[in-house]
Amino acid sequence: MMRSLWTAATGMKAMQFSVDTIANNLANVSTTAYKKEKPEFEDLLYVTMQQAYSDGENTRPVNLQVGHGVVARANVRDFTMGAIQQTGNKLDMAIEGDAFFLVRGPDGNPYYTRDGSFKVSMTDMGKMLATSKGYPVLDRDGLEIYLDTDLENIIIEPSGEILYRDPETGTSMSTGQFIGLFQFENVQGLEAVGGNMYRTTSASGEAIPDEETENPSTIRTGFLEASNVQVVEEMVKLITAQRAYELNSKAITTSDEMLQVANNLRR
């Protein structure tokens, strides 16, 4: 069997993976704080037919090798900030910097998100700050955040500190709680779990409180972070992947025609 058949097949698989990634990026172009992905590939095993050598008299300056195609090895997520869009909603929060909000998932484990489109969830304990799905938003100490007064009297500082403004005197007083913000040594090691959330892995390392980092982030209330997907860029990548897929398909067709010619040879 001709090696080119299998080599071209790996190319088609790789380009299909690329198209799948691009389609996911385009599907999330309007998703709050979505971070686009980029596939990474590497070449496969090489067969060395003749080795480069030099024995003083005779030399072969280059190797004679043939490769076995390509394979997708990683999906790299681009965590650069998306555009900040004003909403006017006091509970909408955008992070300027590299930090993530801390939330508690339905399984009770901590998760991290850049999506600051928060809501108020009515519980037995009072009005709790939560995500759109009702997951509790946590403070620096991993505790739920309860807003025991009217939202009009709540002030959230850029540092994440939650203040209460007395409507009679206009004096602002601290509630003692801060919106939990955390950073990571290796943000690429985070695992996306859907719902705009990520969880830590051994590769990402443990979450680091934002206030303990060299470049602490800030919170802008009344704003949301948009997706960082560039539609034009993704469309160009899509066309490139499609053309590469077609070329690999053509290589398979050509290899099949060559095999057919070889099979029709007569002595």
Give an overview of the whole structure.
The protein is an alpha+beta fold. It folds into two domains: 112 residues, no CATH class; 129 residues, no CATH class. Helices cover 22% and strands 33% of the residues. The chain contains two helices and 21 strands. Strands 17-18-10-9-16-19 form a six-stranded antiparallel β-sheet, with no helix packed on it. A hairpin with a 6-residue loop joins strand 14 and strand 15. Helix 1 runs antiparallel to helix 2. It starts with a helix and ends with a helix. The model has no long low-confidence stretch (mean pLDDT 91).
How far apart lie the N and C ends?
21 Å
Q: Count up the domains.
A: 2
Order of helices and strands: HEEEEEEEEEEEEEEEEEEEEEH
Radius of gyration using CA atoms only = 27 Å
- What average pLDDT do the residues reach? 91
Largest sheet: 6 strands, antiparallel
Strand content bin: 25-35%
Question: Which parts are unreliable, with pLDDT below 50 for 5 consecutive residues or more?
Answer: none
Outline:
elongated
Number of helices: 2
Structural class from helices and strands?
alpha+beta
Q: How many β-strand runs?
A: 21
